[in-house]
Amino acid sequence: MTKLWGGRFTKAADKTVEGFTSSLAFDRRLYKQDIRGSVAHARMLGRQKIISADDAAAIEQGLTEILAEIEAGDFPFRREYEDIHLNIEKRLIEKIGPAGGRLHTARSRNDQVATDVHLWVKDETAAVQALVSDLQGALVDRAAEHKDVIMPGYTHLQRAQPILLAHHLLAYFWMLERDQGRLADTRKRADISPLGAGAMAGTTFPIDRAFTAQELGFAAVYPNSMDAVSDRDFILEFLAAAAICQMHLSRLCEELVNWSSTEFGFVEMDDSYSTGSSIMPQKKNPDVAEIVRGKTGRIYGDLMALLTVLKGIPLTYHSDLQEDKERLFDAVDTLKACLTVTAGMVATLKFNTGRMAKAVRQDFSNATDLADYLAKRGLPFREAHEVVGKLVLHCIQAGKFLAGCDLAELQRFSSLIGEDVYHAIAPETCVELRTSQGGTGPAEVEAQLTMAATIISARM
Question: Lowest CB count within 10 Å: 54, 146, 244, 448, which one?
């Protein structure tokens, strides 16, 4: 079989080399983008009179038929044609004859594949953003359902201060909103057309790059042809954004794994997002959350792998760049799957609000509020901090909590403590008084819910 680039060669590729260099197994998923790019290129060639109008029309019709063949599962993929681009071009020539061979005029596989990947990243970034929005919506819905529930907040995984459960859930909404911003920025960098850059130096034909960019929905064209064919920054940006987003999912899932344990008992996973044990009949394992957490390293690996590939490549195109697609495809597939299952898991969680309410009354998370109480009565905060620390130590030794001490007992540590102290250190008061912007107070959480709902609505 004669290769499309075979004129220079006197020997066929070794069979092992043919398999080793082929990218068809993974780049075939670019077929839609490849055909879109080729249709735009053919229209431009006809418009510029580089090829005849009849040939341009025949090429477009042939490509439309090839798209239908691929989507119907009837396309004759052949590994010896190396990649999706040559497979489609060879099939086009088979279907329409010599006119098909004119499609590659003023184009190289270098700018062709770069164009395909730009289009694919644009499409998939939008799909990922939609899934992020779904998860954000699930978090907002659950926060709104439980906006009056108080739970312990943690630092260092130690109980710190009482907070609203809704406040905790909304923290993840805002993390994901930053992910939305990073993904939107990534899409901007992908929204540049390399088509027309040729192999690396442009072309001698009178092409119209602005026309093909407009046909494909690109906002701009690369101003430098060498940069156009060698740039993979936009993929790195996507992988970095994906890695950060996946890290946020992992943190959420880590909390759900902890909260579902007997020791916490704050949530129960729905049966549809849990598994059992092959030997222990009582087990209900948070496997979905654990697998999402475990997938994080995979996306980190995709980013690091491509960074490593790119670090030693001089301008312009090298076959090392073939490694970009598997890393990109894997990260997209992994992140989309994780976003989908996490949204479903959050939507079906059962919160044990009684356990949360009990927990926040059996700890010292109101200690800061007692220090604030004393500071408001004139005691310097650092002194108040020390007084309350000594009082906490006393309670630990006595086997009680702050609210369990009688007034005389409390007043041994400070004469500033009055009967109103029990109201001041009640979990409800601790939450209500945190009215600073972005705090856990009910009015501030309600404001967050309104902002979040507005953001989600604007995307619909």
Answer: 54
